[in-house]
Amino acid sequence: MPDTLICQTCGNKFTLPDSVAAKYPGWKPKQCMPCRSGRTRPSTNTDDALARFDAGPSTGVFTDGGCDPNPGPGGWGAVKVVDGEIIEERSGHDPDTTNNRMELRAMIEAYRMLAPGEALPIYSDSQYTVKVVTEWGAQWQMNGWRRGKKGREPIENLDLVQELFELARSRPDVTPQWLRGHTGSRWNEYADALSRAWQTTP
Is 48 an active-site residue? Predict the structure, then answer.
């Protein structure tokens, strides 16, 4: 009987058809066939995300956001988890937005979910959003909220960038961390499902 494998892209369990296992003995592909062919779609159901995924950190605030198409209608999600137990979750929708705006909004809400003195990590699969806090924000502020080599270029999403940066400055004990998306990390996938839940709301 073929081994049960776990897809490194979607986290689903799968087995090779007997004919394939016989033709390629010992082969253990890293992706299921739907992911190999590009047909997998992320879940819009949080229960499904819990059932399908179990990897990754089990404590922290996990955020995600996006839109389809970009720009276009989108959503964001954030879930606060301690030792695998959901403490709080939030989500929202914008009919006309961008991926980055939704990622920024998700992290803003993550900071707001933390109680005073609560230094849980905040995880995002958006390097842009993490770097706004950890690298770029301080320099942009010194440049009068401009960017570029000569400090003359405008900053996109400035309203949300400033809001996030001020929240982060008020919580120096909290450092956002980048987490690679769609690799089977349970709470990243859960936050992603929250950010997409609006797509199934009547």
Answer: no
Range list of H helices, the chain: 18-23, 33-36, 46-52, 99-113, 127-131, 137-142, 158-170, 186-196
Can you name the residues that pair with 153 across neighbouring β-strands?
Answer: 147
Task: Check residue 180 and report its DSSP letter.
Answer: -
pLDDT digits (tens, 9 = 90+) for 78-135: 999 999 999 999 999 999 999 999 999 999 999 999 999 999 999 999 999 999 999 9
User: Is 103 tagged catalytic?
Assistant: yes
Establish whether 11 is a catalytic residue: no
Catalytic residue among 11, 56, 60, 65: 65
Query: 2, 18 in Cβ contact below 8 A?
Result: yes
Task: Report the chain's terminal Cα–Cα distance, integer Å.
Answer: 43
125 noted as active-site residue: yes
| Catalytic option among 60, 66, 74, 182 | 182
Question: The sheet that has 60-67: what strands, in order across it?
Answer: 85-97, 72-82, 60-67, 122-124, 176-178
Annotated catalytic residue: which of 125, 137, 184, 189? 125
Can you tell me which residue has the tokens 């970009």?
70
Amino acid occupying residue 30: K
Respond yes or no: is residue 68 known to be catalytic. Answer: no
